[in-house]
Specification:
This protein is mostly helical and 300 residues long. The chain has two domains: 29-79, no CATH class; 82-297, Orthogonal Bundle (MetI-like fold), CATH 1.10.3720. Helices cover 72% and strands 0% of the residues. This is Putative spermidine/putrescine transport system permease protein.
Length: 300
């Protein structure tokens, strides 16, 4: 019997249609030109924005420290006399003291109240948990006036307006939600087995929180304290609505002076604005440093 030869299938070549091969737009010369144009225009807009912002900031700084500045690129001399005059004329020290008392007290209370709240949100599942988280987001996602006017109306009706207590409570409306959302990832990242081990050794809830939870989230507490301090120090709209002559914070006072500036020298007004800017810049850079330090320590 003769063996059959294996059938070898012949490879058929796919016919090639002659014609121009169209390149994708991004690889074509036209696409590269468009991409280059987008990048160039983006950089031009960024540089223009930075030039305007930095230029205005530099002008304020030079004016606040300059002696005389008329028709020249830079002032003829530099002095701190405008700062001294502004502090004396507007009692900046007194307003700064009031602001620090309100903000520091509200910061401490916000941390004390937010820590157990964060632990419950991180470790417990309960009905309407997501709704509660959404409620905590409202103060810093909604426009300030949307909740500032109703809160101010309530505070005037119950006698809390134009009082230190009222200003502290108002800052808690901003501070507690902000602190909760900063601390929540820190508590969620903790290993619950450490808590189980502490409980098995007889640790109470208070000791567990004091000796196990808090020491592990010290970086988060620090970052939260600095950030809510900046947030409350910079709170303006709702403070403007409920503050009185003896309870004005520094930023409300600066706004009032700038709004009613008649015959005051521009250099004095600029020095007053810098008095408000310097603490905010300092604590902002401190917050960035703490965040960077925390990420390095956690190995992220």
């Amino acid at each position: 019997m003769r063996a059959e030869k294996p059938i070898i299938e012949e490879e058929t070549e796919t016919p090639v249609v002659k014609g121009k091969h169209q390149k994708p737009l991004r690889n074509s010369k036209k696409g590269k030109l468009l991409q280059g144009g987008y990048k160039t225009s983006s950089w031009v807009l960024i540089l223009l924005f930075l030039t305007i912002v930095l230029g205005m900031t530099l002008a304020v700084i030079l004016s606040a420290f300059g002696e005389e500045w008329y028709g020249t690129i830079f002032p003829e001399g530099y002095t701190v006399e405008w700062f001294v005059n502004a502090w004396q004329a507007y009692e900046v020290g007194e307003y700064f003291k009031i602001t620090m008392e309100i903000v520091l007290t509200a910061t401490v209370i916000s941390l004390v109240l937010s820590l157990p709240t964060v632990y419950i949100l991180a470790r417990r599942d309960f009905p309407f948990k997501q709704a509660l988280l959404g409620f905590f987001q409202m103060p810093f996602t909604l426009p300030d006036l949307l909740y500032a006017i109703p809160v101010a109306s309530i505070f005037y009706s119950i006698g809390l307006a134009e009082t230190m207590t009222g200003l502290i409570v108002v800052n808690l409306i901003v501070g507690i939600p902000f602190s909760v959302f900063i601390l929540l990832p820190y508590v969620e990242s903790l290993d619950p087995r450490l808590e189980y081990a502490a409980q098995s050794l007889g640790a109470s809830k208070f000791k567990l929180f004091q000796r196990v939870i808090i020491p592990q989230i010290v970086p988060g507490i620090t970052a939260s304290a600095i950030n809510i301090f900046i947030r409350m120090f910079n709170t303006f709209t709702i403070i403007l609505l409920i503050s009185g002559p003896k309870t004005q914070t520094l930023n409300v006072m600066v706004f009032s002076v700038l709004q009613g500036s008649g015959s005051q020298p521009p250099a004095m007004l600029n020095s007053l604005a810098l008095t408000l800017m310097i603490p905010l810049l300092f604590f902002s850079f401190l917050s960035l440093w703490v965040s960077s330090f925390t990420q390095k320590r956690l190995g992220k």
